[in-house]
Amino acid sequence: MPPWIAGQARNDKVSGFLKIEGLAKTFVPGKPVFDNVSFTLDQGEFVCIIGHSGCGKTTILNVLAGLDQASAGHVFMDGREVVGPGLERGVVFQSHALMPWLTVRKNIAFAVESRWPEWTRDAVKTHVEKFVAMVGLSGAIDKKPAQLSGGMKQRVGIARAFAIQPKMLLLDEPFGALDALTRGTIQDELMSIVRETHQTVFMITHDVDEAILLADRILLMSNGRETPSGYAPGGIAETVTNTLPRSRNRAGLHHLPGYYELRNHIVDFLVSRAKAGEDH
Ligand SMILES: Nc1ncnc2c1ncn2[C@@H]1O[C@H](COP(=O)(O)OP(=O)(O)OP(=O)(O)O)[C@@H](O)[C@H]1O
């Protein structure tokens, strides 16, 4: 067995900063989208989840965010059960959820003031400007969302989530709308920020290279499907531990020993196993 395969996620020991225990979600009775999803994240760990459309990635992320309820199972963060949204969890959605009547500055300041109500106006201003600069939007800081492109709005959403420095970042394809150059810059920023702050990150991506660059572990998720013996729900089929050096960067990724093996393993899963379900 290759060194990066850590075994079935459902056998992981249930300890750590974020614990997901026996999660299931059912919309159509008798045909849960996924069931028995259990995994843990340690503090400071970066975990990506990869799987085909419809397997339930966003549903899991929404449950972790406290925005949706599972049909079964529990989520614990720092020992407390997650029952609703909270400022200790920052979420970046595929669709940037900005307040259209507020400027970029005020959208982010609103979140920062909620997080640190005791801060002076100057402290908030400096903090907001730092994170707007990080996503390259200083020139648009006093514009409203309607005046920005889709990618720019997405960057505001990213800046807002990063600015409140939540213990846990939940990212649903946060870079999907960005051009390759901006995407690369923000990936680098994200990596250096979370390593510095020891934030824990759970991220959905469809981009195998992005997962290999950013993640310490990659969860491979299979789709629910009909089989000769009946319906089989989706779930976490496998947990892949990224054994490439943590100091990796985008430019050097392809040259690292083990990179192609790791990449091929994930692509093979997506191509031949994610829907066929030998592992689930
Ligand atoms: N409110 C709902 N009512 C009925 N079915 C739903 C509802 N929300 C999601 N689903 C179904 O649940 C499944 C999982 O959806 P989810 O959005 O979590 O998938 P995903 O893996 O994130 O997909 P994508 O990669 O396309 O974003 C899909 O088949 C979807 O059609």
Automatic annotation (TrEMBL):
Tell me where it mainly resides: membrane
Domain (ABC transporter) spans: 18-248
Recorded hits in PROSITE patterns, A to Z, give: ABC_TRANSPORTER_1 (PS00211), ABC_TRANSPORTER_2 (PS50893)
Q: How does it sit in the membrane?
A: Peripheral membrane protein
What InterPro entries does the record tag this protein with?
AAA+_ATPase, ABC_transporter-like_ATP-bd, ABC_transporter-like_CS, ABC_transporter_ATP-bind, NO3_transporter_ATP-bd-like, P-loop_NTPase
In which domain of life is the source organism classified?
Answer: Bacteria
Q: Could you list this entry's UniProt keywords, alphabetically sorted.
A: ATP-binding, Cell membrane, Membrane, Nucleotide-binding, Transport
Which terms in the Gene Ontology molecular function aspect does this entry carry? Answer: ATP binding; ATP hydrolysis activity; nitrate transmembrane transporter activity
A Pfam family matched in the record? ABC_tran
In the UniProt record, which is one GO cellular component term? Answer: plasma membrane
Q: Which cell locations does it reside in?
A: Cell membrane
Task: Report the sequence similarity comment from the record.
Answer: Belongs to the ABC transporter superfamily.
Identification of the protein by name: ABC transporter ATP-binding protein
